[in-house]
Design goal:
The chain has 154 residues and is of the alpha+beta class. The chain has 2 domains: 53 residues, Arc Repressor Mutant, subunit A; 78 residues, 2-Layer Sandwich (Alpha-Beta Plaits), CATH 3.30.70.920. It has 6 helices and 4 strands, in the order ααααβαββαβ. Strands 2-3-1-4 form a 4-stranded antiparallel sheet. It is elongated, with a radius of gyration of 20 Å. Pfam families: AsnC_trans_reg (PF01037), HTH_AsnC-type (PF13404).
Amino acid sequence: MDESRVNTSAPPDDLDRRLILLLQANARESTATLARKLGVARTTVVARLARLEASGRIVGYTARLGGDEAGRSVQAFVGITVSPKAGREVVKRLSELPELRQLASVSGEFDYMALLRADTTARLDALLDEIGEIDGVLRTNSSVVLALRVDRQT
């Protein structure tokens, strides 16, 4: 099959999923090594990567901190409830925090769930105060990460 003619909006198949898993484990893996591990031609890997990037399924490559660096920081999940119609401004203000790693709108008890990473518990405490002082934030609920059991995030 000519990989360049594959629809970029097609759902990922098994090869795409295996390729993504390999990239999550090591985003710097060479296309030749990826092809060998997947049992396909290097050109197939190149075409698949181009298609996954063009479709928005892969949006970037990043460096993950090692155990020492990650171990010197503290992470917390923060549930955030906002007043009606304040969401856009709250998201804008939260996006300005360099310690914000992820922000998702969610269903359930909270409107948003944030993942924060701070250098110290004192900085985390200050961040939580900053978030609580944003106009439109009604309530927060924080859970500090004690140990990461599974991490498939790149």
